[in-house]
């Protein structure tokens, strides 16, 4: 049996373009799965994890799973949850946690956007005196 | 109402940079000083300060105030309220005033950028030289020794050899206390492309050069200067007793977060100065909102400051007290100083109190460089283009300063988050395509902020209105604000400047205010100019030679109440294109010296 976290990481690899090792290395896998559990109506996370074993292009076009998949990408890159679209909320119901919010201080710092930019999260993981004077390199997790 | 137990030589309202500098100087000269601070003192112990860093990490919006939520009893303006107009400021128009400040112990230096430019010699003589604005009652040579003192007090990193242009002079043999902060990789690329190009403003052809900015950020010290570390005030019997943690807050480590919070306090904040005051002579009462200045009806001198002390930052419950001294210094901020004077019915003689409110209404330009330039790293700004700050064109339109960012498109668009959202939602990218798109775009983000001079106008003002009060019943500032033709023409010129520089440097202009973060706008000659405030409040208690035309004299002493001093950028007759902190620090040190002499008589 494949665990929920394994399924979540599998779909996250497809969505983010980062490897399993890199995603586990953020320390955020369990927390983001928990975020989905907090935000989506009961039972929908497990449905999503099953549906998301299909090719990504199809998931992104799906009226139900497309918005969730896009939010998962933003979760990984920015550490924040974005309120689901109104039409989605009308169709599937809402939970109080479905608001625009930063998941946690750790999530903010773990955002993959900083890695993609060859930078570091503003206010954390400082690169050291004068590092800004050198050419950027893509950070390796 | 209960009287405070002690009387003091000097009562200071406000523990920001100006108040802290005066407190340090006076206590070290042997005078007893009481400092009343409206906000909490949570930035003054390192553990509490770290909680503010966490607040920033968790904040939905990462604006200047995001690390510094206010107390209920000491509300403050918030960038998020500018659009709605229903925040602490009552925005009475015609345009929104775009700047904010912080009411905490340490003041707005808690989230300032740290750039510490001197004003130009010509900035003090705008009326005489160019026929606009007002002249200062001081000139550059008067202030130059105090600039040197201020650069040592707040710890400025720069090399004099980079700074001698536009008539700026330095005393022989002088250099800044610390070597310059290294320019960023993108600064060097920009300089290689741009240095020597010319811009025409009016009839002036001006050659551009990318120059390193002086900054109050710790770098490598010169000649025995000891950089000041992080603030760590502890209760009696804990800590080392001197209020500073010298093993923290050393060299800038490139946190890319000067605004809103330097996590390691490599950047100066006013708490560092307050911690260096003579402890036996200093009392600081935080969570104490000055609510009224009380006069002796016979002499017209100030005899007490009434203040409201609260224990719970989330509550408006408070008790009222009086503080008494021989002299009084208002150092609460340009807006708060004027507000307190107005609320006390003082300083109305010249009709200038609260008027001449200025800012640097500023234009963003953002674009994509042709190759990776390494943004989102390092101090938010390490260089700029100064060449458009001075010259005869100032007879016709405002001067401007080009601040070159190291923070990508964060300020104008909310990037990198907004870039991710655009890629995922608008462009429909995912997986390796998403990652590659973000790599190739984020690494090429370039941002300019063009800061435009604004002249004093009596119509731009802070006033009070009994209909608008805060939780303690104190007035909220009512702000009337407009931008005149002189400044609008400077803003339009600024837009042309970044477009020309971008073209020269091969930067694709992506500036699109409709797609960026919301900022107020104004139409000029058919073009919509979006402007952001710089937090550079000035002019509300203007200094001058003539009591009929000014609120304070050149010593920042109130013309009408001779034991009352109003310090800070509120005293500026004009503000040129420098950010005001270094100049207001120099003025505060000058006033402290004057007070020391007066009190010794």
Structure description:
The complex is a heterodimer of chains A (141) and B (601). In chain A, 55% of the residues lie in helices and 3% in strands. Chain A has a two-stranded antiparallel ribbon with strand order 1-2. Chain A has 141 residues and is mostly helical. Chain A is built from nine helices and two strands, in the order ααααααβαβαα. The longest helix of chain A is centred in the middle third of the chain and has 14 residues, at 65-78. Chain A has helices at residues 4-16, 20-25, 29-39, 44-51, 56-61, 65-78, 86-92, 105-110, 112-117; strands at residues 80-81, 101-102. Chain B has 601 residues and is an alpha+beta fold. Chain B is built from twelve helices and 22 strands. In chain B, the strands form six sheets. In chain B, strands 1, 2, 9, 10, 11, 12 and 22 form a seven-stranded mixed β-sheet that branches. Chain B has a six-stranded antiparallel β-sheet with strand order 6-14-15-16-13-19, with helices on one face. In chain B, a hairpin with a 6-residue loop joins strand 10 and strand 11. In chain B, helix 4 packs across helix 12 and helix 9 (417-426) packs across helix 10 (431-442). The two termini of chain B are 33 Å apart.
Topology readout:
The complex is a heterodimer of chains A (141) and B (601).
Chain A lengths: L3 H13 L3 H6 L3 H11 L4 H8 L4 H6 L3 H14 L1 E2 L4 H7 L8 E2 L2 H6 L1 H6 L24
Antiparallel strand pairs in A: 1-2
Chain B lengths: L1 E12 L3 H12 L4 E4 L9 H13 L31 E5 L31 H5 L9 H15 L30 H10 L3 E4 L2 E4 L2 E3 L17 E2 L12 E2 L24 H5 L7 E4 L2 E8 L6 E8 L9 E12 L3 H10 L18 E7 L12 E5 L14 E6 L4 H4 L3 H10 L4 H12 L2 E8 L8 E3 L14 E4 L3 H21 L2 E2 L11 E4 L2 E4 L33 E3 L14 H20 L1
Parallel strand pairs in B: 1-2, 1-12, 2-9, 3-18, 12-22
Antiparallel strand pairs in B: 4-5, 6-14, 7-8, 10-11, 11-12, 13-16, 13-19, 14-15, 15-16, 17-18, 20-21
């Amino acid at each position: 049996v494949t665990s929920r976290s394994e399924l979540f990481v599998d779909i996250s690899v497809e969505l983010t373009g980062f490897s399993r090792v890199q995603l586990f290395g953020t320390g955020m896998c369990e927390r983001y799965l928990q975020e989905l559990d907090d935000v989506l109506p009961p039972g929908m996370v497990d449905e999503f994890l099953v549906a998301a074993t299909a090719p990504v292009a199809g998931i992104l076009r799906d009226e139900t799973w497309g918005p969730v998949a896009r939010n998962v990408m933003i979760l990984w890159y920015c550490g924040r949850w974005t309120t689901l679209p109104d039409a989605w909320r009308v169709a599937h119901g809402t939970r109080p946690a479905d608001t625009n919010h930063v998941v946690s201080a750790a999530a903010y710092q773990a955002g993959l956007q900083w890695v993609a930019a060859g930078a570091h999260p503003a206010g954390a993981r400082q690169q050291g005196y004068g590092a800004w004077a050198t050419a950027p390199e893509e950070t390796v997790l | 109402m209960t009287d405070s137990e002690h009387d003091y030589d000097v009562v200071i309202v406000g523990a920001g940079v100006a108040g802290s500098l005066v407190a340090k100087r006076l206590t070290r000269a042997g005078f007893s000083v009481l400092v009343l601070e409206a906000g909490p003192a949570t930035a003054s112990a390192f553990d509490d300060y770290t909680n503010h860093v966490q607040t920033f990490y968790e904040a939905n919006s990462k604006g200047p105030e995001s690390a510094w939520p206010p107390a209920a009893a000491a509300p403050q303006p918030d960038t998020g309220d500018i659009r709605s107009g229903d925040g602490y400021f009552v925005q009475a128009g015609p345009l929104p005033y775009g700047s904010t400040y912080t009411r905490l112990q340490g003041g707005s230096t808690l989230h300032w950028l740290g750039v510490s430019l001197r004003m130009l010699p010509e900035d003090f003589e705008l009326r005489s030289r160019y026929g606009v604005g007002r002249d200062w009652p001081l000139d550059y040579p008067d202030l130059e020794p105090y600039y040197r003192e201020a650069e040592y007090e707040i710890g400025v990193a720069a090399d004099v050899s980079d700074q001698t242009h536009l008539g700026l002079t330095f005393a022989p043999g002088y250099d800044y206390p610390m070597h310059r902060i290294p320019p960023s990789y993108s600064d060097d690329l920009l300089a290689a492309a741009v240095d020597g190009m010319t811009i025409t403003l009016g009839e002036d052809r001006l050659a551009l050069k990318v120059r390193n900015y002086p900054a109050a950020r710790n770098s490598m010290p010169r000649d025995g200067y000891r950089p000041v570390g992080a603030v760590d005030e502890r209760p009696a019997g804990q800590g080392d007793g001197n209020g500073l943690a010298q093993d923290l807050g050393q060299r800038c480590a490139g946190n890319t977060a000067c605004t809103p919070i330097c996590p390691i306090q490599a950047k100066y904040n006013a708490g560092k100065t307050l911690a260096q005051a003579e402890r036996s002579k200093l009392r600081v009462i935080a969570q104490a909102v000055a609510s009224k200045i009380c006069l002796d009806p016979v002499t017209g001198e100030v005899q007490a400051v009434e203040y409201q002390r609260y224990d719970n930052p989330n509550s408006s419950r408070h008790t009222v007290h009086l503080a008494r001294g021989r002299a009084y210094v208002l150092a609460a901020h340009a807006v708060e100083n004027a507000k307190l004077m107005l609320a006390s019915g003082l300083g109305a003689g010249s009709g200038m109190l609260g008027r001449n409110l200025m800012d640097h209404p500023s234009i963003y330009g953002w674009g994509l460089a042709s190759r990776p330039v390494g943004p989102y790293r390092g101090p938010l700004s390490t260089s700029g283009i100064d060449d458009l700050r001075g010259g005869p064109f100032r007879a016709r339109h405002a001067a401007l300063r080009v601040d070159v960012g190291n923070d990508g498109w964060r300020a104008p668009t909310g990037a990198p988050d907004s870039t991710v959202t655009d890629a995922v939602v608008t462009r429909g990218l995912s997986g390796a395509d998403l990652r590659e798109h973000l790599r190739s775009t984020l690494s090429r983000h370039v941002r300019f902020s063009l800061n435009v001079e604004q002249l004093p106008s009596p119509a731009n003002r802070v006033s009070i209105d009994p209909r608008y009060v805060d939780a303690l019943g104190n007035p909220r500032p009512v702000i009337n604000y407009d931008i005149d033709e002189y400044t609008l023409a400077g803003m339009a010129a600024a837009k042309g400047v970044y477009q020309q520089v971008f073209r020269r440097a091969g930067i694709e202009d992506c500036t699109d205010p409709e797609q960026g973060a919301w900022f107020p706008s104004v139409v000029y000659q058919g073009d919509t100019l979006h402007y952001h405030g710089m937090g550079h409040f000035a002019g509300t208690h203007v200094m001058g030679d003539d009591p009929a035309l000014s609120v304070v004299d050149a010593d920042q002493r109130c013309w009408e109440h001779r034991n009352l001093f109003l310090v800070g950028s509120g005293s500026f007759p004009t503000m040129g294109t420098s950010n005001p902190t270094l100049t207001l620090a120099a003025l505060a040190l000058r006033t402290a010296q004057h007070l020391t002499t007066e009190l010794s008589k």
